[in-house]
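Q: My labmate handed me this sequence with no annotations at all. I'd like to see what the chain might look like in three dimensions before we decide whether it's worth expressing. Could you predict it?
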Amino acid sequence: MKGRVIALDRLGEREAAALIVDGVLQDLVIDPEDAAPRPGAIYRGIVDRPMKGQGGVFVKLPDGQSGFLRQVSGYTPGQSLLVQISGTAEPGKALPVTARLLFKGRFAIITPGAPGLNISRRIRDEDLRADLDSLAQAGMEGAPRDLGLILRSACEGADEAEIAEDILAMRDLAVAVLGDVDGKPELLVDGASAHETAWRDWTDPAPDEVDDGPGSFDRHGAHEMIEALLSPRVSLAAGAHVWIEPTRALVAVDVNTGADTTPAASLKANIALARDLPRQLRLRGLGGQVVVDFAPMPKKDRATLDQVLRAAFKGESAETSLSGWTTLGLYELVRKRDRMALSDLIGATR
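A: Here is what I predict for the chain of 350 residues:
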């Protein structure tokens, strides 16, 4: 199966979306249960108590929920403020939130507190950039000075009227929300659903097919791909395999070469895992500290593996810090938890 396919379906009563490129599952979004906040949701909250040892404050959210904002200065208990869900949290823990709001559309992103008009660097045509700059200036005319605008790469090849409409919609939403800071904790803007996320974030480059009919996951083999992700074992070429196992403290990744234990086989398996690791973590919804036990190889080969890892994680949307090698020969990285673990989402649909 060649090409870029977006499949929109449902798992139980919840929306689900799969991005499949050349027959390989590249991204997956499943709505959480109704009561669970979605990343990107904007709330009016109340500052609760500071946690100076952790460098942040707790924020009261509606329905008894709590958020954790990594900032102490400038906030006092009882103060109203606007926050946005920036990731997911383990059961019983406060949700990560940020006071740096983003109003994200398919073509435009409004950035309160970060003024300026910016166009994606992926758009290189100078004439198009000039046209988009004119659209941006017209769309932000009369807007508050502290509102910034980013035009996304999806603007390339898009209809100017649609871009202008998206700019105005995001701008008006931002102005309305920013003027609603006083009051009790309340959900002001819900996070994007799975289908909305797919239309907003996966249509650049343009897909070869968008299958939004019932049973689309069956037609494109998405169910089988998802089922494979629920297994900790990932097969590699030539009999090599990887175990990816989350624990309470970290995600453990173990690379095995199988019957072939030669240095060449080790390096080949390690490179294969390094290239696929961002996709595996993304699809499985895994984050936090990740520790990789690569197959044994000479230290001189570590530089090659470092280059492969940096290239593999370069395009990831989730913030990732590649910490490097430990004295025991393990590799550490930290990936932001930007979505719920797949095992938790799928378990809720069964």
